[in-house]
Amino acid sequence: MEKRMLLLVVALLVAGLWSSAAWALRPMGPPMAGLEQGQMSVGFDFSWSKMNVEVEGETLDDVESLAYLANLGYGIADNWEAFIRLGLAGIEIDDVDFSGDNQFAYGFGTKVTFAESDPLTWGGLFQMDWTKSEDEVEIDSYEIQVAAGPTYQMEGMSLYGGPFLHFVGGEVKDIPLIGTVDLEQESIFGGYVGAQFDIAENASCHIEYQLTGDASGIGVGVVWKF
């Protein structure tokens, strides 16, 4: 068992080095559509997160990730928007003193407004990020976040948050003497809270905190609408 776990850790270190977009909480922002129909936005997010990952029934603790993501959004309707994001992400594993470099990360998502009753707006969001890379081993992984909740709007700022679901899955393939192993998150349920501030006409910044039973993350970002 100890030999098997050693091989798993070595393989995961190689996978982390070449596919560091996995295993992370990504910023979500207000759970509502913020763009009018035909309106566009561009933004930038920075996030840090730490979580535990389950591999073949064993836990890999304290997987840290830093991500730098550019976002492009489009208002499909007044109550519905979609976005894509591209950027870089890196990973560190405290338990084994591993520090990986930054690699390409990408994802997409959508936000919907369900109901508005000034000053509260209720809505939800879905977003997905993933990576597929190959070197010493091949990794094919994804992450999904689904959230819903209120946004409380005030002059010059808003507060938002609510419960969310967090899914991590995939496979690490071609591991010497093992073959393929599955990876997944330790906890699914969590909650988050954030604040958004107007900094100029059609421009805002936000900061938020996310927490599940085995993960936590902080994100900040800016958005320009046009």
Task: Name some characteristics of this structure.
single chain, 226 residues, mainly beta, Lipocalin, elongated
What does this structure look like?
It contains one helix and twelve strands. It has a single domain (2-94, 101-225), classed as Lipocalin (Beta Barrel). By secondary structure, it is mainly beta. 8% of the residues lie in helices and 70% in strands. The radius of gyration is 18 Å and the shape is elongated. Residues 1-22 have low confidence and may be disordered. The relative contact order is 0.23. A hairpin with a 4-residue loop joins strand 3 (80-93) and strand 4 (98-99). Strands 1, 2, 3, 4, 5, 6, 7, 8, 9, 10, 11 and 12 form a twelve-stranded antiparallel beta sheet that branches.
* Uncertain ranges: 1-22
Give the number of DSSP strands.
Answer: 12
Our count of helices gives 1
Mean pLDDT: 82
Largest sheet: 12 strands, antiparallel
**How many domains make up the 3D coordinates?**
1
Any idea of the CATH class?
Answer: Mainly Beta
Q: What percentage of amino acids are in beta strands?
A: over 45%
Structural class: mainly beta
- CATH architectural type: Beta Barrel
What string gives the helices and strands in order? Answer: HEEEEEEEEEEEE
First-last Cα distance: 57 Å
User: What share of the residues lie within helices?
Assistant: under 10%
